[in-house]
Structure formats: structure tokens, C-alpha cells
Write a structure and sequence with these properties.
366 residues; alpha/beta; Rossmann fold; Dihydrodipicolinate Reductase, domain 2; six-stranded parallel beta sheet; 10 helices; 16 strands; globular
Amino acid sequence: MAAETTKSNPIRFGILGCAEIARKVARAIGLAPNAVIVAVGSRSLDKARRFIADNGLDADAVRAFGSYEAVLEDPGVDAVYVPLPTSLHLRWAVAAAERGKHLLLEKPTALCAAELDRILSACRSHGVQFMDSTMWMHHPRTAKMRELLSDSARFGQLKTIHSCFSFSGNPAFLQNDIRVKPDLDALGALGDVGWYCIRSILWAADYELPTKAIALQGTVKNEAGVILSCGSSLLWEDGKVATFQCSFMADLMMELIVGGTHGSLRLSDFVIPFEEEKAPFTFGSGLFFNELVTGWQSLPSTHIVTASLPQEALMVQEFSRLAGSIRDSTGKPDDKWPTISKKTQLVLDAVKASIDQGYRPVDIVG
């Protein structure tokens, strides 16, 4: 994947760190029509050069740096993608904002909401766009599902949400991956896969914060105290209820079920579609049993939504559009994305607090 030279006035990206997820986002930047990679930084210059070579980037067009600081000091970089361990987000996200770089930040965004507040404050103070890299938010399927959930006649009032994201980490993962190391990603499975579950619940609830989190008993931690598997219920004052389960110890599942008074929505690949070019979901309205209760009167309808670009490229495209409008003085930072990130982090914090407090209810205060 050679760096693009024919894109018109693209946002110029620097990448801080050569994590595995950075390969996916590097590809996405190459596919996005309004973005280009111009710099890669690592703690090792050789590692940065290997990342450029291994990902098919043009070594003559993409600068390799042996430090993150060098990327931030590069005047040819407009924005940075930060896939570093969560423990490093506060330092480098704030540093990026202070140097006027728009910030695309991996999830979880921070170790706690207080840290995220400092990141968002730096972004606001320096007029840069913030967005976390929850990629499924940008798939056209997500917008189509929102249309159906907003249809009061077919869906009705939201009542229940269930989300599950798990994958089975092999012994090497469970021993060595940064996501199980307390000094790197102390939130473990809750921060990694649980972030997606919480975001999907908030999305389904149109970002209305629940009032309480009650972690489910049975949390599994490793010897270092990092969460490998956990779950929680979330409650709203009007009676809505959500549950989620996230784990590094169960087979790959990405389930989302949203139930209303008149309809229901289901999908089994909400984080990463089964296929890159198209994504399915089912929706039913007024479903019920047949007369003898031996089957259903009617079945949910299947909807398949195609995508012009992979969801991660659509994310980069939207982020770059916002950053470009700021650069060109035609727009200001969009507060939608930092607001959604903050709400996700608040719920995550409350679930962790409930676990730490012996599964007691914890109030969620926005």
C-alpha cells in the first residue's frame, strides 16, 4: 500500500507507535480519499522503518522517527493516530493536542474519566478535533439501524439491550499481551472488548446515560489483578435495563440485541462485520407466536447494508473531514465525538468501581 500522492489537500497523519491495530488503521488512511500517512514514530527508528516497509508505505514519502516526540514536532503532520497502551494515552494525547495535532485515539481512551477530561480539555484549549477509534460507529449499517430504532410505530419505546463481545485468547495472549498487563492496559477485557459493549448500549439508548451500574458476580482476573472476563447490568430511572458480557476467555461473539415495546433488532457482528463489503442485521415488529405456539406467526426481516469503504476507512474519512474544516477555517471541532467518548468512559468507570466494591450498585453521574 503505497502512500497516496494524488489526493487533493489531504489531512496528513502521523502514527505514534507500531501496534498491531496500527496496521489496520494505516490501511484505512490509505483508502480514505482525504487522508495520507506522512510519518510513523516508534521508540526504535528501525521499528518505524520496518512498519513502513511491512505495510507497503512509500519510504520516500513517509518519514520514520525514533521517538513519538519527533512526530509531534513535525510541522508536516496535521493529525495523529495514537494506538499506544492506555497507560500512555494521557501523556501523548495531551502532548499532541498542545502541538495542535488533531487526535484519533485508540480505545479505551484513558484509564479513567478524570484522565480523559484532561485530554479533552487540552483538545478544546488548542482547537483540535478529538475522536476515539470505535470503528463500527461509522459503518452505514449503524445509521440504518438508528432509523429503525427511531421509528416509534415499528420499534416503540426502548426497554432492553444486551451486548456481548468475547474472544478466546490463547495462552501466549493471556500471558504476554499488553491488554493483560497492569502497567500497560490495567482495564483488561473491560477496557478492550467491554468498551464496545458499553458503546453499543449507549448508542441504542441514544446516548442517555444509565443511572446505575451493577457488575455481575463472577469476574475473572489474572494473577496481576487484570480483568479477563466480566459483565454488568445498567439501569435507567424509567425502567430501561441493559446487560453486557465481555471476555478474553470465550469463543468469538459480537452480539447486540435491542428490544422495544413494538420491535426488536439483532446482529451478531456489531464490532467487525462478517464481511468487509456488506453487513447484515435483523429487525422484527409485532412478532408473536402462532395459534398453537408451535412457531412464530412471522419472522424478523433481514437487512443487508453495503459499504463503499471499510468502516475504519469511513472513520478516517469523517475524522479527516472534520479536521480539514478546522484547518480551512470553515468549521470548528465537533463536540459530538468527545461527548460520546466521555459517556462511555463514565459507564466503564462505574462498572469497574462496582467490581472493586464487591458488586455493589454504583451511581453514574454525567
